[in-house]
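job 3f2a | input accepted
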Amino acid sequence: MSEHIRIETQDRIAVLQFNRPERKNAITLDMYRTLTRGLHEADADPAIRVLVLRGTEDCFTAGNDIQDFLNVPLEGQESPAVQFMLALMQLQKPIVAAVNGVAIGIGATMLLHCDLVYATGQARLQFPFVNLGLCPEAGSSLLLPYRLGHNRAAELLYFGEPVDAQRAYELGLVNAILPEKGFFDAVLERAQKLVDQPPAALRTTKALLRQGMAALLQKAVQAELKEFAAMLKGPEAKEAFEAFLQKRKPDFSRFA
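job 3f2a | predicted structure (256 res):
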């Protein structure tokens, strides 16, 4: 169990919290394992009706812990990161995300698998995969164009630039922008309204909402994973990550 993931239960709601503020809640392998276990246990617990995913006061998550990520190669579905995403994709119960501050990389793509996403005006979403010499992951190459259209999805993925809360709302990536004061309490109020709904009806509705994309999503995730793993070992990613760790601008001019 990772000390950087807090899991609490209140009023039939399971709250899973990234709690590593000194590193902008960057996710380690141990954190992924704890999150995956928490998702499975909450989904199987009849006392839990809704899950909430949140960060700390000023940050959702900056995505993968780069050093930890580079030390353990991504190899197939047994990777802790992949196991987490599969658990999130396969949840039967509704999951609500509370986003304040940055949501980068997998911090942004995981939101595509949440049923409801609420943000403050300080939220910033970013899909910087191409910037890192990589390709999209977690089904985002399918879900972003499906939701936004090809051109808008391409702009987000090709440039990897941050998207502020207002733009994310306009694109439909978040349901609403809530005041920063009392933000998490407001999200819990929304979650509580789901708790009060008929649970079987909610689960069935969620399953029906997603059934049309299930096979396509599985295929997209597998294709992404194959390409991502190969590109992670490639020269462009090597240059991007070295530049990141050395705090300099990467130079891709020599690549064809």
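job 3f2a | The longest strand covers residues 5-10.
job 3f2a | closed
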